[in-house]
Amino acid sequence: MCGIVGYVGFRSVADILLDGLEQLEYRGYDSSGIAVKCDNDIKVYKAVGKLKNLREELKSHVKEFEKSTMGIGHIRWATHGAPTVLNAHPHTCTHGNLVLVHNGIIENYKELRAELEKEGCVFKSQTDTEVAAHFIAKKYDETHDLTEAVRLASKEIEGAYALCVMHNDYKDTIVATKRNAPLLVGIGEGEYLIASDVPAIIKYTKKAMYLSENQIVTVTPDSMKLIDKDGNEVQPKIELLPWEPVALSKMGYKHFMLKEIHEQPDVIRNILVGKLHTAAEPVILDEVKLTKDTLKKLTRIQIIACGTSLHAAMVGKYLLETFCGIAVDVEASSEYIYRRTVTDEHTLVIGVSQSGETADTLTAIKQAKARGSHILIITNRPDSSMAREADSLLSVNAGIEVSVAATKSYIAQLMAFYLLALYMAEIKGSTDKSIIQSIKNELMILPQKIEQVLANTDEIQKCARKYSNTKDFIYIARGINLPTALEGALKLKEISYINATGYAAGELKHGPIAMLDDTMPVLSILMKGIVYDKLLSNSEEAKARNARMIALTNSNDPKLEDLFECIIRVPEVQEFLSPIIAVIPLQLIAYYIAEFLGKDVDQPRNLAKSVTVE
User: Fold this and answer.
1) Cα–Cα distance between 416 and 287 in angstroms, integer?
2) Are 235 and 565 in contact (CB under 8 A)?
3) Which backbone phi and psi does 25 adopt, to 5 degrees?
4) Which residues contact 448 (CB under 8 A, 6 or more apart)?
5) Which one of 2, 121, 164, 566 is the catalytic residue?
6) What is the C-alpha separation between 144 and 141, in angstroms, rounded?
7) Looking at beta carbons, which pairs linking 228-233 to residues 24 or more positions away fall under 8 Å?
8) At CA 317, angle to CA 313 and CA 323, rounded to 5?
9) What CA–CA distance (Å, rounded) separates 80 from 101?
10) What are phi and psi of 400, to 5 degrees?
11) Angle, to 10 degrees, between the axis of helix 264-272 and the axis of helix 433-455?
12) Cα separation, 442 vs 563, whole angstroms
């Protein structure tokens, strides 16, 4: 869960590395560093905390590296060892000749470290990464070839990693490799860039090559050579990147999170383009390869995801079971991969990931694929590792999401599940056509309804300010909006650090009701539908314990005025589609509370956007 940038070419390297790291700061931000080739030496500079601290550190060293045109950089989210200068990347070998940056986890680092220490290597950090530096340096001493040293070391290093390596003997060469971690090479004129993700390079080039598993790339200003793990040369597959640099701008908003919340109406419009033309026409999902015969043979569906994607998956379960009549299990990827799972060729396995690189989900997908399951991936990144494992792909077209807290990608994932459930129901003939048509009609007008919510946030801001000093927060819901309650609580936890919890409202009296008193806010997601009256009764139970009651509702029921001290209203929508409308105010409540508390909204502590370690 770290960001890597490398550059070799003709430009001043420090500026490029810092700019690239800034674009990758969503991947980690507890320390950072760069290494640059300066004449006959490699200089390493590091700092703890946000990237601005590294910028300050570099101000007094400009003359040392101002003419340098090759270097590597790293921004860290700590896994092994605390965020300290010693543990920050880049790391060097004992004599400082070899330097590298690393994303991922080296699983056999303890064994390798013990072996290297016996041979006289001196370790300075607590990290698994430093082991790789010493180990590759050892292979270099044996071969005197940097590419071959990386190749040989990779055969013995276990785990998931992306590595970017320089050596003092090479004035203009960078070698990189990857296994189960994202890495790409940006291709320019007389220059090459290496990075963990597109934002780091899009300012300089729109041509790139994604490394496949265990491939090793060697770049100089004028050349790029790609080999496989056995040393055989591979023809690079060069792609055109779809993004514009403007996508990384806040566009006048105070935070990326607020910008991304406001982008959600257009996200829905974008995902519907080419997939849903009119209510009378069938849903078109060109990259979903589920035929009528395939669906007939399915006995179950498993959805695996993490975090916010897991909440989208829970809504997906409700939709798929309702419209398709197939049993659906939803499980956290981190749990799925460490137990025996009943998965076979009669199981549709759906992996959900914003980045398409989530390590736990990627591992789970590979396990299910090995058992013969049809793999369908829902992701915001059709160029990701997970997408490359897919038999079927549903790309959500949300555009780049910079804020660590997922907002527009969640809405996009929800939309993907609505479209998938309708698509499958139409193929199976499992739901009345009039119901499907009604849902399609409403899907197409959802963007306007969300725009109504975004245009009228006064009540949401008042509510956020009123409860911004609470230490705890409870969200309750039932039915299809239980995942909405969980997602609302997660958003508040992530960016305000308030202890927020979501509950099935009927479960309050089975334990959580003990926490209720006049200091506890309870937010009820009271959307009109089959569970409305039951949830109203659950809210009255909480009120009887003096809880401070908040309603999020599309109802004008007069009973609400006496029961709730704060009411947030959203436009009318049918119950099946209410999770899309209901989550918008919850995102805004979390945002405004965090802003009122002065928190770092886009980069909350301890979190990273792309979780590429298990």
Assistant:
1) 12
2) no
3) -65, -20
4) 265
5) 2
6) 6
7) 229/151, 229/154, 229/155, 231/148, 231/151
8) 135
9) 14
10) -65, 135
11) 150
12) 30
Report the alpha-carbon distance of residue 184 to residue 20 in Å, rounded.
13
Facing residues of 105 across strands? 160
d(CA 593, CA 464): 5
Where does the pLDDT of residue 576 fall: very low under 50, low under 70, confident under 90, or very high at 90 and above? very high
Tokens of 162: 């992306």
Confidence of residue 231 (pLDDT cuts 50, 70, 90): very high
pLDDT band at 606 (very low <50, low <70, confident <90, very high): confident
| C-alpha–C-alpha distance, residues 189 and 235, integer Å | 19
- The rounded distance, in Å, linking the Cα atoms of 233 and 216 is 10
pLDDT, position 82 = 82
pLDDT in tens, 408-419: 999 999 999 999
Question: Token pair for residue 260?
Answer: 């991304």
Phi, psi of 145 (to 5 degrees): -140, 115
Q: What are the structure tokens assigned to 37, written together?
A: 């080739």
Cα separation, 576 vs 549, in Å, equals 25
Nearest to 358 by CA among 177, 154, 104, 606: 104
pLDDT exceeds 60 at position 614: no
Torsion of Cα atoms, 194 then 196 then 199 then 200, to 10° = -40
pLDDT at 245: 64
Quickly state the pLDDT bin for 405 (edges 50, 70, 90).
very high
The whole-angstrom separation of Cα 369 and Cα 379 is: 17
Token pair for 346: 């009669």
N- to C-terminal Cα separation, the chain = 10
pTM: 0.79
pLDDT at 132: 94
DSSP string across 313-342: HHHHHHHHHHHH---EEEEEHHHHTTS---
Position with higher pLDDT, 247 vs 71? 71
- Inter-residue contact 357 to 610 (CB < 8 Å): yes
- What gap in Å lies between CA 424 and CA 606, rounded to an integer? 39
Place of tokens 């819901």: 477
CA distance 69 to 190: 11
Phi, psi of 125 (to 5 degrees): -120, 175
The reported pLDDT for the residue numbered 1 is 57
- 93 part of the active site: no
Cis omega (within 30 of 0) for bond into 90: yes
Cβ atoms 347, 368 nearer than 8 A: yes
Active site residue 121: no
Adjacency order of strands within the sheet including 300-305: 328-332, 300-305, 347-353, 374-379, 392-395
Judged on CB neighbours under 10 Å (0-12, 13-18, 19+), 235 is exposed
Task: Answer for the pair 169, 372: CB distance below 8 angstroms, yes or no.
Answer: no
Cβ-in-10-Å burial (0-12, 13-18, 19+) of 215 comes to buried
* Catalytic, out of 43, 178, 543, 609: 609
How many Å separate Cα 255 from the centre of its chain?
18
Who has greater pLDDT, 260 or 385? Answer: 260
Residue 17's pLDDT is 95
Residue 233 banded pLDDT, cuts 50, 70, 90: very high
Two tokens at 121? 């290597």
